[in-house]
Design goal:
Blueprint lengths: L1 E3 L17 E9 L8 E10 L4 E8 L9 H4 L3 H4 L5 H12 L3 E4 L2 H14 L8 E4 H8 L8 H7 L10 H22 L5 E3 L7 E2 L7 E2 L8 E2 L3 E2 L28 E5 L6 H10 L3 E3 L8 E4 L7 H9 L3 E2 L1 H8 L8
Parallel strand pairs: 2-5, 5-6, 12-13, 12-14, 14-15
Antiparallel strand pairs: 1-4, 2-3, 3-4, 6-7, 8-11, 9-10
Helix pairs in contact: 5-7, 6-7
């Protein structure tokens, strides 16, 4: 583990009082992108209210399994064999996050990986809000060719030294976030903050041994059984007929077809479960029959958002949908 670098400089900009008081810029490297994958390294840059660096921290994590795409992150089994397990660094990691907004590039991924690791350790990460720098760059209208971290870094003249190394990725993001935050403050831009809810419905699911490798110094990992937040299962068909489109200001009605797009605060599968339990039809795609699209980023160019615009499908954000779920009108008998 590594920690150093402290600075107290701050911007003279008159600061919006509604902005957060501190940030934790985070990057995690993982064994893969699936729900069953594990964190193998993590870095946190703590920033003050105006985005100035206070300190930073980095650790390797033994995932107790195959490290995944070594050609990307460079962390082999031998390197990770003597690293601490996640539950052994969970307290120090939490201290870095406590009371701060988690900032990451594609923040939903980093948050969900962190939340799952804490759930495995039977703890909760002390994070209540997150901010995605992709969403912030959209709010600022930055002229980026794409939403890769390297493009954001290049826009602000930040030099990447070791791509896909958690500490350097977190440094690059912290240096790019500072001018982004300052531009938002100067322009009176609302920060695209989303709620972070702990993922507490972890449950192991039976599976055959799918990974095995010989160990280096310190012993082998052997194999692992994948886990998931919910056992995979097919939802029953919605028993109610589709009553048509949702109308603004009215109630949802059982049988309405609801589609989801983009980042959500609540784990997507759990959100879909709640919709199904309320008697709604959860649609995996969007068509002219879709009653409602739920998205926190209506300006994105996803296929569902584009089709919703073409078809005139009503769109609401996750918070509004949560309110609507509380009072769903029964289907006509």
């Amino acid at each position: 583990m590594l920690e150093d670098h402290t600075t107290t400089a701050s911007s003279p900009t008159e600061w919006p009082t509604a902005y957060p008081r501190g940030y934790a810029v985070v990057d995690v490297e993982t064994t893969g992108l699936a729900r069953d994958d594990r964190i193998i390294s993590a870095a946190v840059y703590r920033l003050d209210a105006r985005g100035e660096v206070e300190d930073h921290w980095y650790t390797l994590v033994n995932p107790q399994r195959d490290p995944g795409p070594v050609w990307i992150h460079g962390l082999t089994s031998d390197v990770l064999a003597d690293a601490p397990l996640f539950h052994e660094v969970a307290e120090e990691f939490a201290a870095r996050l406590d009371g701060r907004v988690l900032v990451a590039h594609n923040a939903v991924f980093d948050w969900q990986m962190i939340a799952r690791e804490y759930a495995r350790a039977e703890r909760e990460a002390p994070v209540r809000q997150r901010l995605c720098t992709i969403a912030l760059s959209k709010e600022l209208g930055l002229p980026l060719p794409n939403h890769k971290l390297e493009s954001l870094a290049a826009h602000f003249g930040v030099v990447q030294q070791r791509a896909h190394h958690a500490l350097d990725d977190a440094r690059v993001l912290a240096e790019a976030f500072r001018p982004s935050l300052r531009a938002a403050a100067e322009g009176g831009v609302r920060l695209p903050l989303l709620e972070c809810r702990p993922l507490t419905e972890w449950a192991d699911r039976p599976a055959s041994l799918i990974g095995r490798q010989a160990g280096g110094p310190g012993g082998g990992y052997g194999g692992y059984r994948p886990s998931s937040w919910r056992p995979s299962r097919k939802r029953p068909v919605c028993p109610h007929p589709n009553p048509g489109r949702y109308e603004d200001g009215k109630r949802l009605k059982q049988g309405m077809r609801v589609a989801f797009s983009g980042d959500t605060s609540v784990e997507r599968e759990l959100l879909e479960d709640r919709a199904a339990e309320a008697g709604l039809h959860v649609a995996t795609s969007l068509s002219r029959l879709t009653s409602l699209l739920v998205t926190n980023d209506p300006d994105s160019g996803t296929s569902k958002v584009v089709k919703a615009r073409q078809f005139g499908t009503p769109v609401v954000d996750e918070a509004a949908f949560g309110q609507l779920l509380r009072d769903v009108e029964p289907a006509d008998e």
